[in-house]
Every structure is written in C-alpha cells, then in structure tokens.
Amino acid sequence: MKSFFVAAAALCSFATAAPASPFEMMAPPPAGTQFYSLQAKSSATAVNNQWVSLKTGSTAYTLASAQTAAAKFFTNQYKPTGTYAFHNADDTRQVALQGADGVLLYAVDITNPSTTSIPSGQLMEWATFTIDNNNLGVKDGSTLTNRTFVAVRGSDGGYGLALYDGASNTTQNITPITLSIVKIRMPGPTTTLLIEGTFEELTDELAQYIDNLKKSQNDESSNVQAECAQLLQENKKDDVLKKLVMGSQALNQAPEKEFIAAYNLLIHLVRQSPNVGMFLPRICNHLTAPITSSPANGAGLALSILSTIFNTLSPTNDMRYNVLLTILRVIRSSSNFDTLRPQLKQLDQWLEAWEMEEDDSRKLYLAVSDVAAEAGEDEQAYTYLIRALRTIPSDEASSQEARELSLRALKSALDHPNHYDFQDLTDLDSIQALRNSDPIYFQLLEIFNSDLLEDFNDFKDEHDGWIEQSGLDASALNRKMRLLTLASLAASTGQTRSLPYAQIAKELQIPASDIEMWVIDVIRAGLVEGKLSQLNQTFLIHRSTYRVFGENQWREVASRLDMWRNSLVGVLQVIQSEKARFVQDKEEEAKQVDQKIEGLQRGQGQGPRKGKPRAMIDDDMD
Amino acid sequence: MSERDSFLHLARPLGPAPIGAQPSTAPLSVVIQPQAIFSILDHSLRRPQDQDRVIGTLLGSRSEDGTEIEIRNCYAVPHTETAEQVEVDMDYQKQMLALHLRANPREVLVGWYATSSELNTFSALIQNFYGQQGDGTWPHPAVHLTVSTVPGQEIEARTYISAPIGVTAERAADSCLFIPVPYEIKYGEAEKSGLELISSAKDREDRTQGIITDIESLERAVQHVLDMLERVSNYVNNVLDEEASPSSALGQFLMNALSLAPKVDPADIERDFNAHIQDVLVVSYLANTIRTQIDLSNRLATAALTLGTGDALTGTGEGGGREGGERQKGGERRGGKGRQQRTVEA
User: Which residue intervals are annotated with compositional bias (Basic and acidic residues) in the record (chain A) (predicted)?
Assistant: First the structure.
C-alpha cells in the first residue's frame, strides 16, 4: 500500500509539472504525418488483437474488434522528458490517463489538456508515453515496476482501456494486455484534382460554359452565370453549387472532348462544399441519363466520371456505396461487365470499410449478380447470388425475401450446365429453411447433393410432372444427375481406383456402348480424372471429386499428407547425410594432401628444389 | 509495396484515336519491371540535398490497343522547383530520349516518374508536358509513376494517368485530374531468388552472403515444403479433432492436389530407377572413352610437332600448337607455352 502512495505522489507532481500547453495548436497535422493504431496483445483471446478505438460522442477509449474502427494517432515528442503525446486526429485532442485513486488510470480523450483542466480529486497525465520496441509504455516518474495496460470489462460486455498500477487490489474485472503500435499505411494523395483558381473564378467559367451550351441548344432563357454571380456576392456558395448542379444536365450535350473536363471541374467545385452528399446523388443521376453527344462512348465517359467521383471520396466514406450502385446501373445498361470484372475482388474490402449493414451489402451483391446475369456470366451471377444469400441473418432465414432468393439460387444452380457442387447451397441457413416452405425443392437439392440416379428416378416417379411445372430443364437435370452419379461411383472405389464398365452401365442405366462417352463427359466436367482401359473394360481413376466432403475424406487427406511428409523427411535425411559425408571426405582428402606434402618435404630434407614436388601433385590432380 | 489503395478504374478518358480506329475508353493497366524501380530509387538516393523530389522519364512498351503499358526503363531528368515555378530541362529530355531510342528502338516514351507520393500543381504541369502533342505521348495518355522514398517507411508506388479539367483552354493547360490506375510489378523467378539472396545480406554485419549450392537449395526447398505440409496437416488435424470448422472447398482442393501424385508400386520405382542408373553409367562410360580418344589424338598430333625441329614447321604449327595447348592440361600445356614463347622470340 505504501508503494501506491509513492506512485500517486509521483503522478501528481508530474501532472502539475506539465506545461499548460506543451504544443502549439496546429490542428490538423501536416500532410505526410505518419499515423498509428494501437492493437492489444494478450494471452486472453477475448481481448487479443483488438483495436483501441473511440466511439463517437464518447471520451473513453475502448477496444473494438474491427481494424476499421481503430482510432488513428500521431505522435509528438515532448522534449524535456523525451516522452510522446498521442494525438487523435488533430493536435488539440490527445490520449490522457485519468483515474480517481491511481490504481486504474483510464485512457481518455482530452481536448487541450492543461493543469487547470484536471478534475479535482482525480489524477491525470498526458504526453508521458514511450515507444519501446513498437509497444506503448508509460514513463511518468512512477517507481512502480509492475504497471501494465489492462482491458477493463465493462457492465455492457465491452472492454475499456486503463493503466493498472500492478500492486493494488481492484474490484474491476481486468485483463493485462500490451499495446502494440501499428503503423498505418499512408493513404494515397487525397486530392487528385489539380486546378488553380479561386472558387469564384471557376464557378463563373463553368456557369458561362453551361449558358453557352444551353444557348447552342436554342434555350435562350438560361442565365446561370448571372444568377451565380448574384448568389456569390451574397456568399451563398451552396446555392451557387445547387444552380450549377441543376444546370449540369446540359453537360450531357457537351461535345465528347469537353465532357470530361467540364464534369471534372464540377466535381472539383462540389468537393469544396461541406454538403457534398447533397449534390452527388443528383450528379450521379445526370450521369445515368444517356449522353446525347457521344452515342458510341457515352457509357465509357459516364463511367470515367463516376469512377472519379468514387475515387475522390475517402475510402471509408459510405457515399461510395451509392456511387457504386450507380456505376452498376450504368454498366448494366451498357453491357460493360468486362470492365467491372477486375474490380470485383475489392468488393468485400470496400463493404468492410464502409461498415455497411447486411441489407445494403445484399443489395449490392444482388446488383452485381444481375449485371453479371445480363452479361451472360452465369458463374459470376451465381457466385454473387450465393454471397447475397450469406448476408441473410439466420433469424430471417425463413422470410419471404430469403425464400425467393434461395429458390432463385437453387434453380440457377440446378439449371447451370457446369455447376456440380451443391454443398455451398446446403450450408446456407436460408436454404435449410426451404425444408419447411418448399419441401419438394429441398428434396431435389438433397438428391443432387449426395444421392444417386436411382433416387432421382424415384423422385421423378413420386412427383410426376413437377419438374416441368417448375420450369426446370428435365433433360439437363437427367444428364447432370448421371454425371454426379458417376463421380460418386468413382469416389467410392477407394484404394483399388478402378471401376468396371459393367458397374457404370448398371448404375447410370445406359447401354454399354455409351459408357465411354459418359466417362469422357464426366472427365470434361472436371469431376473425375482417369484413364479408360478398353482392353480390361475398366476405368482407372486418378482423382475424383467427393460430392460430400465428410470426416472420412478429411482422414484420407490427413493420411496422404502424413505419407508425403514422411517421404520428404526421408529425402531430407538422405540429403543431409550425403552432405555430411561430402564434407568429411573433403576434409580427409585435404588431410591426405597435407600429409603427402609434409612427407615429401621431410623426405627431400632441406632440398632447394621446391618446384618438383608441387609439379608432381599437379600431375596427381590431373 | 504492401496493400493497394482502394480505388476503382473503369474507364480512361476519351483520347484522340489513330485514324481509322474508334477512340476507346477501355481501362488500362500498367506493368512495371523492377529495374525501372531500382534506377528510380538510385536516382532518389543521389538527389541534391535540398530537393524533395526528383523526376525522370519512363520508357517502355505499349500494347497495340493501348490497354497495357509496360515500364521497362527510365532515366533522370534534371529539374528545379521553387515555390512559384518549376523548371524542367526540356532540351536534355529531348536529347536523352533521342539517344535512348537509338539504343533501344523498340521502346517508346510512356510517361514520367517522381520520387514522392505527393501530387501538386507542378505535377499537373509536368504531366501535361509529357502528354502533349509532338514530343509527348499523345495520342496515348502519359503515365505518371510516383514512388515514395521516405526513409524508414515502406516504399509505395502509385500509377496515374490524367484527364483534363476546366472549361477554358488556359485553365486546362496548367491543371489536370490524376486518375489512379492499377499496376503490377512483374519479376521473374530468377530475379526474385537473386534479390532474396542479396537482401539476406542486409541483416549481417559484414554485409556478405555466400552463394548457396544446388544441394543446399534443394535442402532448403525440402525444408520449406515440410513446413508448409506441417501447417496444412495441423489444420487437417484440427478439423478432425473438431477444433476448426471444416471447409469442404479447401478439403476438395487438398484432395485434388494430393491426388496429383501418381499411383506407382515401390517395386516399379526400383526397377525404373535401376534401369535409369544403368543408362547413366553407359553414357558416362561412353563419354569417358570419347574423352580418352580425343586426348590420345591430341597427344599424337603434338608429339609429331615437337618431334619436328625445322623452322618451316614452327610457322605452320603455330595455330595447331595453340589449339592443342588449350585442350591439354598439366605438363603438356607448359610445354606448349614454352614453345610458343620461342616462336615469339624467333
């Protein structure tokens, strides 16, 4: 207990010693400042790898699991002590440690801390952090040796962040952590629109341009320029922008060479308004309208402007979501899926960065799926449909929307000529919900997932005419079922890895003459790899796909891995022993040569003819 | 060059097209060869102390439809920046370009680089200079490559093309919009392993690194594969122990990969291996016989020459003697040399 008092005294004295304002106020930090996040490391999994974050409206730092939520700090060194201040976002706010008794000092966000702002009865310190091996430490004159950062479990189940003195008892539920300092990758240049000129000059030029355009379209009444000039004098910048954005519809008639330049200027101007969100939807709307001046490249032009809008918004800004939806609309109407395809892999990353709700993610996935379907990319369409289905939470799995989507996915999976894996479907909650709402569909799915042709025929007998009624292609289903049955047969052969023709004919219910055709088809479908042996009337299987990947298959994988590893260990041993032998041989050889030389020298006595023995060795080597 | 910025590249600005072709807005991508990056970094190291960034010209090739640009080479271009103005040595740029094109006729001007991630109005000016009609990349867009060279931080590269901005000609001349485009740094296996070797010396105090032998690299590769196998079998065991959630796609993939190993009997392997060994032995025996033959014939030929003492013979024998001397080893070579010296003296 004594040591605690000592520490507290040390803290107090430091807190009062801190200057009123150690740093000039120069918020926000200059461009190019390195930002950091703090990540908790602990042996307790509940708090390990969590990120220090600050909820909006709160001043207490907490732990969050998503890196996107992490607060971004920059550091500033306080020269007299060599310690650092951790600033959040700008120079006025920084991390301070605050607590009533010094046992737990909570990490809080304080604006312009000074000796006068310390609440009475509380200890508070700031700018006392050290960076040690990329871990956060505290150096404030305290003599306690076991101090550590801890995660404090709150009543709501979340974790707060505090510094524990390491000696006192506390009733709080605390978990020791270390805070590792993670460099944040510097974001790319925020502004890529580089144009000189003041807001007033540029708006005037754009307004004039719009007027001229309208006049050339025989719309003499337009007078955007004068109206803008009027509003500018009243300093109503947002109203000016409103006028320009309204007038920007005319830009769709601009000659294609000037189109991009004019729109870029508009974006540049709009970006200067604090209410960007008000104008962008309208601009996006204008861009989805056909561009009359350029029938051939209109879509390309619109896409180029839309991607500029997208790129100039910050990566975490969720307005990007709406822009992306607009882009998808444009791509859909211009059937331009190929340009989108390489970008799709970033989709998940974006959704994470925008912290989108599941509903919105689903909408986006569905939009992508629609675009892909329109472009005839069935595989992609299906993939994104499945992703959309995954966003449906399990408690809504039986809703009407979920049911429709699930049926759509199921049908397209069944109808798709090259889709043989149904396990991803059966894993979905919403598909499982079909068991109750549409039992026949579900039965069919189960058959395609794991059963054989015979079961499918039973199904057809039981539900006569159902397949035709539900709009599925019966012959395609038959064919698919045969291929899947053959794959199952191949997988069930086990170690023998061969399948007699007779068995294939029996299970597939086909004449013997067709066997090879079916086998070739199944190889082409990628389900099985192997060789046909006409002489022995068997199909030798190299590899087969397992329709249901169960425990036995995992065991098989494990045993093969073990086998591989054992043989590799053997190879490694051979290599190492050979290497060791080589080294040994080398040494022995060298020793022998040495001995020889020595022997010769001794034999020759102090003879002056040194050249001779060397020549002999030379010859030996040859 | 860690993760990429998140941006979207769907279309490039509509540019003028060659006669007879439709102008296109197809998106483009950039491929960077590492030697270009190296010389940029080198240039950055040698820059004057008071200069924050240095620039240079990028050379490379462009695919026929202009959608893929490959940066292969670059050279530095002197420039000075002050608060008000930027000066680029245009004459130097022109001369250098002409010289480079003479040496590498297949490369063309593709754009320029700067050794700072920052974009400013000077960047816009220089970009317009490189993209202009005549000396620039017109009608293709000029590529701007920025490579950040802040010490202590990771190197970051970004590539841009530009679009016009502004509705009046004067405005458009000194401003532009930079459009980020995707890029890829391509290097071959050989370059990669070479670089790995070189960079492994950076952690050693004497800054040296021996070149590893074939057998060592084989050992290392086996070790590496073993480590990877360890990881995979850990996962599989976890699945079997129901500690990890199984992914059937992963299982399917593993199964396929493991099935690639052909199914053979150990006896077959033994037989094939023995047959192979016998082949190898025969080949090496034959090779030895041939070598002996050649040796023998050489010795016979030089023996004939050394026997002859006439001056006339030395003249004609010079060429043959040298040839023989080169092929032979040891004592014979010494003899050959001695004789040649004699001829020179004579």
Answer: 583-599
